[in-house]
Amino acid sequence: MNREQKERAESFHRLHDGPAPLMLPNAWDVASARVIENAGAKAIATTSAGMAWSLGYRDGEQMPVQQLLAGCKRICRAVKAPVTVDIERGYGREAQDTGDLVAALIQLGVVGINMEDGTLPGTQTLAHPSVLSARIACARTIARDHDLRLFINARIDTYFSQALHATAKLEETRLRALAYIDAGADGIFVPGLADLDDIATLARSLPVPLNIYAGYPGAPSSRALGEHGVRRISLGCGPMQAALAHLARMAAEAIDKGRYDTMGDRMFTVAEANGLFAAVDSTDRNGAVVAAMT
Questions:
Q1: Cβ 199 vs Cβ 210: under 8 Å
Q2: Do 119 and 157 meet the contact criterion of CB atoms below 8 Å apart?
Q3: CATH H-level superfamily of 3-293
Q4: Residues 6+ away with beta carbon under 8 Å from 227
Q5: How far is CA 101 from the centre of its chain?
Q6: Which of 13, 64, 187, 228 is the most exposed place for a label (fewest CB within 10 A)?
């Protein structure tokens, strides 16, 4: 493990301790990652849904793992900021499958992962917390073996489960969070949690940073979330959803009206687009090639 990657990992941890929450407008490919980095992002986080959609797959681990690795390799090569990757439920049937994926991502230069408990396939029943706990523990062991302080963000899907009564969701979230922290998680992500009082209650009960999803209209501002204890904000697939909607408007305007006003509003010049990739060279960040990609 090279010194540069270790420094990026330490830097990524420190970003969760700043005066304001760490803002992550999630990327789905190299171009989006470079645009986000140029906008001032201190770190780059991927969106699993966005990466899958961009390659023609549905969300939910439908994208082959080799495609995930190839996309992450391109992003890591193109940006200077720390990179954290959404690996959904960890890919694979066993915890060791997740460990193998984490090892491959570390070789690419990744310094953080986001991993969810989710619901059982075809149901609204939450997966037992022991499943994600085992995957977190395995990922932590792999990171130690590579001498890297990998940031493991554990996503809890209690607020997406219709099988769980609304009044029980906050306490179930807290209990799962503590189990995942015991297993080795460095942060807790709770998409769907939007009530500021509940956010503050949960943040106070956790010894690690709380991550909230804000990739939807009407989400609380970063200032409000920060005031209620949030240390990390993710936009998830929201930016790509917005980009697709903008493309749909451009296409409809051109096809139906023969006009290009939407497209012409603040579009990049060719020079600006080319400039995004001026620093990208032909070698991978660590000079390593992952076997699963060859």
A1: yes
A2: yes
A3: Phosphoenolpyruvate-binding domains (3.20.20.60)
A4: none
A5: 15
A6: 64
